[in-house]
Amino acid sequence: MRSWSATRLADAAGARLLADAGVDVDAWGGPERAVIDSRQAAPGALFVGLPGTRADGGAFAVEALAAGAWGVLTTPAHARSDGCGTPGVWITAEDPLAALQRLATAWRRDLGAQVIGVTGSTGKTSTKDLLRAVLAPHRRIVASRANFNTEIGLPLELLAAPAGTEVVVLEMGMRGAGQIAELAAIAEPDVAVIVSIGPVHVERLGGVEQIAAAKAELIAALAPGATAVVPAGEPLLAPHLRTDVHTVTFGEAGDIRLLGSDGERLAIDAGGEPIELVVDFTQPHLRRNLLAAVGAALAVGVTPAGRVALELSPGRGQRIALADGITLLDDSYNANPMSMQAALEHLAATAAAEAAGPPRRRVAVLGDMLELGPTEREYHAELGRRARAAGVELLIAVGPLAALAAKSFGAGARAAADAAEAAAITGELLAPGDVVLVKASRGIGLEAVCRALRDRRAEGASR
Predict the structure, then answer these.
(1) What is the Cα–Cα distance from 333 to 31, expressed in whole angstroms?
(2) Backbone angles phi, psi at 29, to 5 degrees
(3) pLDDT for 391-405, tens place per residue?
(4) Which of 19, 65, 100, 430 is the most exposed place for a label (fewest CB within 10 A)?
């Protein structure tokens, strides 16, 4: 937004620019990015003071200007036309969040980049990471950071895209019906990617059919002629596909499918076009998600080729080497029944990868999976049985629901009330050469277990 004047920015946001007598703020140019934390308000930033449940961000506007922020956007109640003597642009709107979202849409249109929206019950973050990896050698790309996938985070990511960006990849999360539609209205995607449909947020939405409908809001938002990339043979999405949108399927029997692999080399059939990619990951779910990324890349005119330099976002399955030959699989960010199964398969494959050497014990630190509704107990009991089937020898179950997994797992299971207790137990019971998987819903906080293991045993680098 550097090329925008303050007046243009205020107009785009549907907000009011406060005039400061004798100062031509339009001569200053525009901001580089938007922030909502006054501690990040540095030169080039537009600080947006959002009202919150615990504090009103607008109360920190003067502090942001004092830190050198380009300007601030607050409710009129916080407005000070003189900025308390601190230079900077002051813009007001009755609803600063709506103004932020309008501004993001205006910048998205001015940017002229192609926008890919990615959602799914599982795998949306890794698919976003894979898209960044396959597109970066060919296009100037911006992709969502970490968990910037909400009605606040998504517009911040759009506004962080610099002029000249050619492709923006935006992860879209949801907690209920209508939220994907809200995000899509801001981003106006050219390509919609739905990675998977599964039992996530069942407690809020009621069933997988409702989950599919909520995810399909991304397809509904597409303009005619746009592209939807969806799993092949997913019956829950069939009612939501559109005849005026180009649909690309991925997976077994899909338009984009894996023909075979020779070690790191993957042979892919992309609608009759052969593609060969070189990867350093073996997880089946990542290779499947790579097919979705290939479909989206082709939709924006990029044919992926060569090595895929994947860098997974934190807590999404990174493999970390620790002392004593211990391998940590940090998948602590979130969990649901589908992603738990994929993670257990990853654990089994990692432990078996060095079969010629000493046997490697499989250890799993698994916590509660939240928001599963009336069937939550059955899902957790099944988790214990799946862990046993995956060859897990030591299960540390964290939380009251995960205790059901410990019970169904049987001998070799330990129960922990919370992440702190789990960290202590894991640290005591790990042995040299172990492979340990850490995974639970975000609310359980198992990143504390990973942090404790790294602090006590860290050696080597993640990849």
Answers:
(1) 32
(2) 75, -170
(3) 999 999 999 999 999
(4) 19
